[in-house]
Structures are given as structure tokens and as C-alpha cells.
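Researcher: Here's the sequence for the chain we discussed earlier.
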Amino acid sequence: MKVNRADPVESDTGRMTRRTQAQRTAATRAVLIEAARKLFAEKGFADVSTQTIVAAAGVTRGALYHQFDDKAALFAAVYEDVERDLVTDIAARIMAAQPLDPLEAMGVGARLFLDRCVAPDVQQIVLIDAPAVLGWDRWRAVGTKYGLGVIEGMLAHAIAEGAIPEQPLRPTAHVLLSALDEAALFISRASDPDKARAEMTEVCDRVIGGIAGVQVKPSRRHRQC
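Model: Thanks. This is the structure I predict for it:
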């Protein structure tokens, strides 16, 4: 079924109504991003054609190029979608883990991020393809857009609670974000990802401990996250 037309939809009252142009546009964009995300995660950017994407999405090629200038532009939207979901998921999991203090929360967040790096969509889209397709600067800009605010918030809370000493918030957040990005890239390119993840988890624990001025030893609860 092609979605780039004025399909009737059921309203809250049960009556069939026509979708607005904005709704049709949003629906087309959403199915394209969803289909492309699955394909890019499975096969990688280079091995997915636009014809394959539109076939999976159930739309026309014209609909794709109405929404996106080219395959790279669609990939950029997919990358943002993955980053947004990644940050939202990690934030929810940190809350569910109920860390004992702000410092442990930061360690839990770092571990969760590194664990998610082995997921196909994160590994292939975020860590392998995005730097190459979009360029290093744009790749970092998107990562900063979604991750920096979360890290700043955690740092601000840790400072307010006395878990770490007063220090410049934005520069420290950039250092942590860069460390996590580099750790993730190291894991994605390692011949033994499990070993690399374990090593990088210890490194990130020491980085967090250095910011706090203490030696961080992951608790049993931390290791189980």
C-alpha cells in the first residue's frame, strides 16, 4: 500500500476523516525512516539502495525525494532518530536502576551507553556509517545535540549533591561525551567487542573517578545494569 496519498483515517469519534497534508507528509516521513533504519542497521549504508528502501516502506521513489534530497539526507534523519532513542532509553534505564548516588548514576549511564553500542542499529548506523557518510563534524554535532544535555544535567546534580567538586560544567561535559564517543568507536572496531567493552568500562569508571577525585569501584548493582 502506498502511503503518499490522502488515505482516510478513523477519528476519535469513530468517523472516517481525511488526513491533512501535514499528517500525510509526517506519515510518509515516518515510514521511510523506520524502513531505512532497519535496512541500514542490517546491511549498512552502502549496501542499501533507495529502491529497496521505498519497497520496504511501501511508498514511491517520488515520495522519498519529496521528503529527502538523497539517500544521505534520509540517513541523517535515521541517525538522529537512533541517537534520540538511545539517549531516551539510557535516561529511563538509569532511573529504573535507582543508583545510590549521583556518582554511581554517572557510572551506570556510561555502562549502559557502552552496552548499547553493540546493538546493530547503534553499532552500524551511529558508530560505523555516520562518521563516514555525514563527516566527523556533523556526526559529533548530532551526538552533542542529544547527549550533552543529559551529561550536563548529571554533572550539575552531582555537584549540587557534593559528589564531585565544583568545576566548569560545559567543558567537563564535553570531555565526558568525547571519552564515551571514543570508547564506543573503539568497541565498534574491536576484533573482540566483549573484551573491548569490559576494558573501556573500566577506563570510563576511572575517568569519572578522576572528575570526582575518587577511585570508582563499580558496585554489584552497577555490574548488573
